[in-house]
Amino acid sequence: MTAAAATMRGMAGARTPYPQAARELLRETLFGAARDELERRAWSEITMSDIAAAAGVSRQTLYKEFGNRNEFGLAFVIHEGERFLDDVEAAVLRHRDDPRAAVGAALELFLRTAGEDPLIRILLSDDGTGGMLPFVTTQGMPVVQWATARLATTIEEGWPEAPKADVLLLSESLVRLAISYITAPSESPEATAAAVADLLGPFIDRALGATPS
Considering its fold, how many domains does the chain have in total? Predict the structure, then answer.
């Protein structure tokens, strides 16, 4: 087999299977439709039929993919969070030599980015009647678990010698604090991040103090 043929075969092998690609496209279309609807009215006023119609699919297709409106809402919130968590994780890894700075930089970036994001602004303006707030508060456990797992993976990458239990505790604490601060902000992202890093400093030093080799 020639080198060119081997390369083409490798590219073909790496191609996303059609059913998976079709499902990913469907989900992106549905999430985009929900985002567009939310720019015009509150989540509490949006039905699954509205989302399906905006996406150009049947209501049955939407229900087959997500089961019910609550499951769709949770998946949508997580999908939107994915859009800026990559930058937050990069901020953590830029400060491998200073764990407190890593936590502060990541939290500040998260709070600033979330505050500037149109969907998060809608959530922040929700007084409880808009319908989105429960997805990160009273019904928010799936969101907390997802974000905690992502953050824990990043921390383990930067500080592989840190005890796993400490990493999980720190990750979940930061996620819960971040959600609290974006839903009820009190100070600027810089001030909030600095205060949290200072408050958790002793634990951060103990858990992540060792500099990665």
Answer: 2
